[in-house]
Amino acid sequence: MASRIGILDQGRLVQVGTPQDIYERPANIYVAGRLGIPAINFLPIDALPVEGAPQRTAKVGARTEHIELVPAADGPAEVVLVEHLGSENFLHLQVGPHKLVTLVPPGERWHSGARARVTLRRPLCFDTAGQLLVA
């Protein structure tokens, strides 16, 4: 992988940096969506509990490392699909009208129909214009 990359949006350079810097601190929602597997989840700020979000946050970007799952029969999230990929599993969740995809270790035995509580820990926060907010 390159030591520095540039992200273009409709022919306009919007961010240059190391892949890690861009992944961890994308300039905006467009840039955040360019890196990461599974893709980043975008949710309105009121979709799930979020710790430490700046006041102007309109939307959060939740990567797998931002998502904490706790099995709970009364949890708001329902597992709709588990993709077994060997060393990891993609877990597809439905939280009200919102979809969420995250990675879980294969030792965690999730199944379709299971329910969970979901907390977002230090997700990326964006304002109404889609620009990254720094806490």
Describe this protein's structure:
The protein is mainly β and 135 residues long. Helix content is 7%, strand content 44%. It has helices at residues 19-24, 29-32, and strands at residues 5-9, 12-17, 41-44, 50-51, 59-62, 67-71, 77-84, 89-95, 98-104, 115-121, 124-126, 132-133. The strands form three sheets. Strands 4, 6, 7, 8, 9 and 10 form a six-stranded mixed sheet that branches.
Short description:
This protein is mainly beta and 135 residues long.
Summarize the SSE layout with pairings.
Layout: E1 5-9, E2 12-17, H1 19-24, H2 29-32, E3 41-44, E4 50-51, E5 59-62, E6 67-71, E7 77-84, E8 89-95, E9 98-104, E10 115-121, E11 124-126, E12 132-133
Parallel strand pairs: 4-10
Antiparallel strand pairs: 1-2, 3-5, 5-11, 6-10, 7-8, 7-10, 8-9, 11-12
Features:
44% strand, 6-stranded mixed sheet, 7% helix, 4-stranded antiparallel sheet, mainly beta
Rough outline: globular
**Uncertain ranges:** none
Structural class: mainly beta
Please, how many helices? 2
What is the terminal separation in angstroms?
Answer: 29 Å
Gyration radius, in Å: 16 Å
On the 0-100 scale, what is the average pLDDT? 94
What pattern of helices and strands is seen along the backbone? Answer: EEHHEEEEEEEEEE
Say how many strands there are.
12
- The portion of residues assigned to helices is under 10%
Major sheet characteristics:
6 strands, mixed
**Strand fraction:** 35-45%
